[in-house]
Amino acid sequence: MNKKKNKAIFLDRDGVINKEVNYLSDPDDFELLNGTIEALKIFKRLDFLLIVITNQSGLARGYFKEETLDIIHSKMRRLISQENIELDDIYFCPHHPEFTGECNCRKPNPGMIFAARDDYNIDLTRSFMVGDTVNDIKAGKNAGVQTVFVLTGHGREQQNKFKEIKSDYTFESLLGFANHMIK
Ligand SMILES: [Mg+2]
Ligand SMILES: [Zn+2]
Fold first, then answer.
1. Is 28 labeled as catalytic in the residue annotation?
2. Is residue 14 annotated as part of the catalytic site, yes or no?
3. What is the pLDDT of residues 29-79, one digit of tens each?
4. What would you report as the CA-atom Rg of the chain, rounded to the nearest whole angstrom?
5. How far does the centroid of ligand 2 lie from the alpha carbon of residue 39, in Å?
6. Per DSSP, what are the bridge partners of residue 9?
7. In sequence order, what are the beta bridge partners of 53?
8. What domains lie within the chain, and their CATH numbers?
9. pLDDT of amino acid 1
10. What is the DSSP secondary structure assignment for residue 147, as one 8-state letter?
11. If you measure from the C-alpha of residue 5 to the centroid of ligand 1, how many angstroms do you get, rounded to a whole number?
12. Rounded to whole angstroms, how far apart are CA atoms 129 and 155?
């Protein structure tokens, strides 16, 4: 069968979808950023899959357990689905090299994006990785997707860390990117 491939917005979680809190471990601290819902609605209208790609080394470090991460992700899905949008999937890396050894999923590695590509038949060249850190942009480049740097979360302080690597786009926020897509 010659099914048309999907396209996706790969979203870093903390500092892109929700407020950046270091090693978010209390579900009560999970708060959507302004404009997240509106942005996700635009991407859905444009027929993108919405796939969260998040490093959660707090698991490897023992700061929180996977059950807690599940509760946080249920809350994220609930806050979004009550606005009638669904996240298509969430991929997280629980590792950290100092605690669990190297892995191929921790950003800047492209493992999570490749896993999603295989699971959802995604055309990476028509897809985007959005993040607020250099490692998000590197992961996107390593995977061969277009890269979008946003200035929410760690964005402003990370801005001067871009030397040899440049994102394809930079926007104030996820909504700034979404609005650009419908211009
Ligand atoms: Mg982030
Ligand atoms: Zn990993």
1. no
2. yes
3. 999 999 999 999 999 999 999 999 999 999 999 999 999 999 999 999 999
4. 15
5. 28
6. 50, 128
7. 91
8. 8-181 (3.40.50.1000)
9. 56
10. E
11. 27
12. 14
